[in-house]
Amino acid sequence: MKKLKFSFPMEQKQKFSIPRSTEGTIFEVATIVLTVIVWVVIVLALRKAPDVVATHFDAFGRPDDYGSKWNVLFHGILLSVAGWGCLAGAYFPHTVNLPVSVSNLRQALLVSRMMRILGIIFILMALTVTLGSLLQPASALPVLVPVGLLVAVLIVFVILIRKAR
After folding, report:
1. E strands within 12-156?
2. Quick one: DSSP state of residue 8?
3. Cα(84)–Cα(90) distance, rounded to whole angstroms?
4. Is residue 155 helix, strand or coil?
5. Mean pLDDT of all residues belonging to the chain
6. Other CB atoms within 10 Å distance of the CB of residue 91
7. Comparing C-alpha atoms, which of 126, 145, 119, 127 is closest to residue 29?
8. N or C end: fewer C-beta atoms under 10 angstroms in the chain?
9. Helix/strand/coil for 3
10. Which long-range CB contacts under 8 A does 29-32 form with residues at least 24 apart?
């Protein structure tokens, strides 16, 4: 029996060196401060939350599954790590998978800025996802704000990166 071999031509992405900048430092400091604030709020909410909280929501934002309040921390930690990953990814724009090719430094700088903004949005999402479960009455509706921001930022920056050719 013959083994099928699949090979996909890989587009060679141009690598750009993104130097440290005042803008990058401001974003990093803002993310550190925001992360500390978010986790202080989460810990305070966790202390006041009941032992059993909503852990999943239906399409209308109503809770449809419940679990330990400690399970909710997993989502907050995961989203915080994603936020910091985006911040780190800002220095490696060639690793970001976009529907547009990045072929000049201006585009690479836009990718870097987009990743920094997405990092902050993920930190905010950690707050809304966790508080949506911990606060009573539980609701998934606050999560829609950072999700909407995430989609809007992606659309706007893909257009800007495309125009920056």
Report:
1. 52-57, 63-68
2. -
3. 10
4. helix
5. 88
6. 16
7. 119
8. N
9. coil
10. 30/120, 31/83, 31/84, 31/87, 31/116, 31/119, 31/120, 31/123
Q: At residue 64, what are phi and psi to the nearest 5 degrees? A: -130, 5
In DSSP terms, which residues pair with 65 in a beta bridge?
56
Structure tokens at 85: 């990953």
Q: Which of 6-15, 107-116, 139-148 is modeled with the greatest confidence?
A: 107-116
Which residues, listed in sequence order, are joined to residue 57 by a DSSP beta bridge? 63
**pLDDT score of 154:** 96
- CA angle 9-10-14, nearest 5°? 145
**pLDDT of 11:** 63
Confidence (pTM): 0.86
d(CA 150, CA 154): 6
Q: Which of 45, 70, 161 is nearest to 114 (CA)?
A: 161
**What pLDDT, on a 0 to 100 scale, did the predictor assign at position 13?**
74
How is residue 134 written in tokens?
């911990």
Amino acid of residue 134: L
